[in-house]
Design brief:
252 residues; alpha/beta; Rossmann fold; seven-stranded parallel β-sheet; globular; disordered N terminus
């Protein structure tokens, strides 16, 4: 039985930050397969972004563009929104996915770490969201922030990262209150989905997986499915953060 409340995503447009690789790229493919036109944002991964753009355009002509920007350049964030909006003539979804992630050990944390982790995980999503308000209001669109289950339960040696994601979680709820009824704002909080590059050994990975209720790691497609649900099917959901973590956050 079809869901009569589900919206048709054909020719609607999503801007996804950090979309050239990993979870961001899977989100882009998933939303594109559902009919959306995609603006891929990237910073340094031009080859991957161009390849993904070409892949999606081969599937559906003129359905994807790639735009480069360093999200730490706050003054240029409105330009990213404007370029995407000018190309497509509309904006229906902003996915704040781009994120810096690495340990910051107590006694060795620096202001540069703070600026990088807070900038990518909290500051850029806030100012991008602010810049997108007029375009999203006109389409009754939405914002989806990729948070982290560690926004609620800290991870050792990652104080700054966890604090930034906790700020992003509160920003999600606060913006939902500020921007309703015109714009919905939600979050997705990944758990053991895709291991950080060069960060965790096999033993540590097994330990993390064993803390989940499902006793297995998730896939980027699980995050993308949650994003698709919040975009297409969840018209009466705002201000919520959905953990996609195999039950790890319930401490089984």
């Amino acid at each position: 039985m079809s869901n009569s409340n589900a919206c048709d995503l054909q020719n609607k447009t999503a801007l996804i930050t950090g979309a050239s690789r990993r979870i961001g790229a899977v989100i882009a493919r998933t939303l594109h397969a559902a009919g959306m036109n995609i603006t891929l944002h990237y910073r340094g991964s031009q080859a991957e972004a161009d390849a993904l753009r070409d892949e999606l355009n081969a599937q559906r002509e003129n359905s994807c563009i790639a735009l480069r920007l360093d999200l730490h350049k706050t003054a240029e964030l409105p330009d990213l929104i404007e370029q995407s909006h000018q190309h497509w003539g509309r904006l229906d979804l902003l996915v704040n996915n781009a994120s810096s992630f690495y340990p910051t050990h107590i006694g060795k944390m620096t202001e540069q770490h703070w600026d990088d982790l807070m900038g990518s995980n909290l500051k850029a999503p806030l100012f991008l969201s602010q810049a997108a308000i007029p375009a999203l209001t006109s389409t009754q669109g939405s914002i989806i922030n990729i948070v982290d289950i560690h926004a609620e339960k800290p991870m050792k040696n990652h104080t700054m990262y966890c604090a930034a994601k906790a700020g992003l979680a509160m920003m999600t709820k606060s913006l939902a209150k500020e921007l309703g009824p015109d714009i919905r704002v939600n979050g997705v909080a990944p758990g053991a989905i895709m291991w950080p590059e060069n960060e965790l050994d096999a033993e540590t990975q097994d330990e993390i997986v064993n803390r989940t209720a499902l006793k297995r790691s998730g896939m980027p497609e699980d995050i993308a499915a949650a994003v698709l649900f919040l975009t297409r099917d969840a018209h009466y959901i705002t201000g919520q953060i959905i953990p996609v973590d195999g039950g790890r956050s319930i401490n089984i």
